[in-house]
Amino acid sequence: MLISLLTLSGLAQPTVKPPRDTVAVTAPDDRSPVRLRQPPAPRLNDYRNDRDYQYRRELKPADSPWAAFWAWFWQKLEPFFASNTYRYLWQYVFLAAMAGLVIWLLIKADMLGFAGNSRGAYTAVPYQTQSENIHEINFNDQLDTALQQQNYRLAVRLLYLQTLKHLTDRELIDWQPNKTNRSYVYELSNPAVRRDFETLTRQFEYVWYGEFPLSAERFEPLREAFQKFNRP
């Protein structure tokens, strides 16, 4: 009765006819038992050992003594890294050792100012660098004092300031206390002069701002370069 009502009300779904290019074939009523076939055991083992078919397993390390050693090494260390002793003690010991190693390497590379007192790189500056005026500095006296104290880092700064004064006296730059060194490089119109001055500027910044301590042997080539640039 319900089917008839649906049909009369137009709610019944129409019969879907197959497309014209589709051939309907009636499947035979095959009720024969299903026969399960198994692959040969040797072939099945080949598939199991093939790395291309191991989707859900961790790949075995390469068959080399070095790879086998590191696999064994990290396997032994894994419980230690997961332990509370490592989390609360040994990881800080390792970090402190690494920091000490970095500091030691920096000292060996002469990149820290406390690498040795014999260099004399951090003696007192005889004037305030924040308010220095290149027109008020007696460069000859200050250079002599810095060299007597073996303060070669300060001597390089004095040579650079003296170079700025020479460029200012020749009206090649407009010196101002608040200008950057790079500003003076851009003010030079002569390409050759600009290139040489840029090299001196880079060396000065490396020594002064990089706090690189100098020896007498390293200072002499720098002084010769400044003197050559300042010659008329």
Word description of this protein:
Among the domains are: 65-108, no CATH class; 129-230, no CATH class. 55% of the residues lie in helices and 0% in strands. The protein has helices at 2-9, 41-49, 65-81, 84-108, 139-148, 152-169, 181-187, 191-208, 216-230. Helix 6 packs parallel to helix 9, helix 7 (181-187) packs antiparallel against helix 8 and helix 8 packs antiparallel against helix 9 (216-230). The longest helix has 25 residues, at 84-108. The termini are far apart.
Structure, briefly:
This protein is mainly α and 232 residues long. Helix content is 55%, strand content 0%.
Defining traits:
disordered N terminus; elongated; about 55% helix; about 230 residues
- The stretches of 5 or more residues where confidence is low (pLDDT under 50) are 1-11, 110-130
* Helix-strand sequence: HHHHHHHHH
> What characteristic shape results from the CA principal axes?
elongated
Approximately how much helix is present in the residues?
A: 40-55%
Q: Overall pLDDT, averaged?
A: 76
Radius of gyration: 42 Å
% residues in beta strands:
under 5%
Helical/strand content category:
mainly alpha
Straight-line distance between termini: 119 Å
Helix tally equals: 9
Tally the beta strands: 0
Biggest sheet, in brief?
none
Topology:
Layout lengths: L1 H8 L31 H9 L15 H17 L2 H25 L30 H10 L3 H18 L11 H7 L3 H18 L7 H15 L2
